[in-house]
Amino acid sequence: MRQDPNIHLDRCPHCSVAKPNLSQVCGAETRDSAQRNPRRWIGYSCRTCGGVLLTVARKTDGGWEDIYKIWPSSQVVDDSVPDRAKQFLNQAINSIHAPSGAVMLAASSVDAMLKEIGLSQGNLYSRIKLAAEGHLITNEMAEWAHEVRLDANDQRHADEDAGLPDETDAQRSIEFVMALAQFLFVLPSRVRSGRGK
User: Fold this and answer.
1) Contact between residue 184 and residue 106 where contact means Cβ atoms under 8 Å apart
2) Maximum alpha-carbon separation in the chain
């Protein structure tokens, strides 16, 4: 992808809106102290959320290469996460602009992960409790999982005493689910792969 006045991404890494309108707002060219390693940095702003992302490209004899790095990068769910849990988590990430839905989808992903590791009896509350008692997750992780569960319940049952979540609340739920996925599936998969080599 070239550093043009507008760049095209599938989703904004800040608000996850599909096909964001990303326009250049700033730029700079830099070199190291020995005048080597020329790079061009361009910042692009999302017209939906106002978030800015930074891109970098290197210069070669033929001109500027394509973008090789973007910050922040979009959240990506690892392929080692089981499909149902992964689908719920991807949908939560992609709907962060609709925080109530994102929170409920995050809780659904937690539920799918616990079912995947063999905890299919009872409800989500009991599955979280069993996961902690069986030392499949830490007590702190269980407490955070319960917070995600309760936040989702507030939205699912339209609890009038509970406030509506904002994007920060949704991001916190997604952050936990990403951490749980790392703990239950991604790290064990990497350990198996590393030991296999």
Assistant:
1) no
2) 64
End-to-end CA distance of the chain: 34
pLDDT in tens, the chain (197 residues): 888 899 999 889 888 888 999 999 999 999 999 999 999 999 999 999 999 999 999 988 788 888 999 999 888 899 999 999 999 999 999 888 899 999 999 999 999 999 999 999 999 999 999 999 999 999 999 999 999 998 898 888 877 777 888 889 999 999 999 999 999 999 999 998 888 77
| Residues 110, 156 share a domain | yes
- Whole-angstrom Cα distance, residue 131 to residue 125? 10
Domain count for the chain: 2
Q: Is residue 135 part of a domain?
A: yes
The boundaries of the domain holding residue 129 are: 83-196
Whether 1 maps to a domain, the answer reads no
Say if residues 197 and 45 touch (Cβ distance below 8 Å).
no
- Of 31, 51, 71, the domain-final residue: 71
Distance between CA atoms of residues 27 and 161, nearest Å: 47
CATH number, domain containing residue 170: 1.20.120
Task: Check: CB of residue 139 under 8 Å from CB of residue 132.
Answer: yes
pTM, rounded to two decimals: 0.76
Q: Which amino acid is at 15?
A: C
Residues 155 and 65 in one domain: no
Rounded CA-CA distance 105/145 in Å is: 13
